[in-house]
Amino acid sequence: MKDGGLVVIVAPPNPFRCPPGPYERASMIAHYLKTNKPKSKIIILDPKDAFSSRVCSWPVGRSSTRA
Question: How far apart are CA 47 and CA 5, in angstroms?
Answer without folding.
Answer: 23
